[in-house]
Amino acid sequence: MKIILDTNFLITAVKNKLNIFEELKGNEIFTLYSIIKELEEISKGNSKDAECARVALIILNAEGVKKIKSDGPVDPSLVELSKKGYVIATQDKNLRTKIKRRKGRVVIIRQNKKLEER
């Protein structure tokens, strides 16, 4: 399975100290260059999310996550990629709804401790 990690999914995983790479073992893991930019922008702040974004960037590099070039805003890019067979890992309810309407698949963090495909 080819799985794309979204910004809020990564931040939520770091907040809850989930080893998503262990749970997703055996799958091809990707993110978008635009998601990297979002994480870099968030990481410049002083909030709890900023610290999580910094850690997420470190983890993405350490795990060797593949990056996909994307044009335009993140959400429409993820919807388009879901049509091409990618599974989107996101916590964003609106994005999940858009993907599901187009018969796409998503992975979410359930109860802050486990991954679930929908």
Describe this structure in words.
Helix 1 crosses helix 4 and helix 3 runs antiparallel to helix 4. The protein has six helices and six strands, in the order βααβααβαβαββ. The mean pLDDT is 94. Helix 6 (93-101) links the parallel strand 4 and strand 5. The protein is globular, with a radius of gyration of 13 Å. It has 118 residues and is an alpha/beta fold. The chain has one domain (2-117): Rossmann fold (3-Layer(aba) Sandwich), CATH 3.40.50. The protein has a six-stranded mixed β-sheet with strand order 3-2-1-4-5-6.
What is the N-to-C order of secondary-structure elements (H for helix, E for strand)?
EHHEHHEHEHEE
**What's the level 1 CATH class?**
Alpha Beta
The value of Rg in angstroms is: 13 Å
Provide the low-confidence segments as ranges: none
Helix content: 40-55%
List the quaternary state of the chains: single chain
What would CATH call the homologous superfamily? 5'-nuclease
Strand content range: 15-25%
Task: Give the CA-CA distance, first to last residue.
Answer: 14 Å
Query: What is the overall number of helices?
Result: 6
Strand order of the largest sheet: 3-2-1-4-5-6
Q: What structural class do helix, strand and pairing data support? A: alpha/beta
Give the domain tally: 1
- Assign the CATH topology: Rossmann fold
Instruction: Please name the CATH architecture.
Output: 3-Layer(aba) Sandwich
Largest sheet, described in full?
A: 6 strands, mixed
Shape: globular
Average per-residue pLDDT, rounded, comes to 94
The count of β-strands is 6
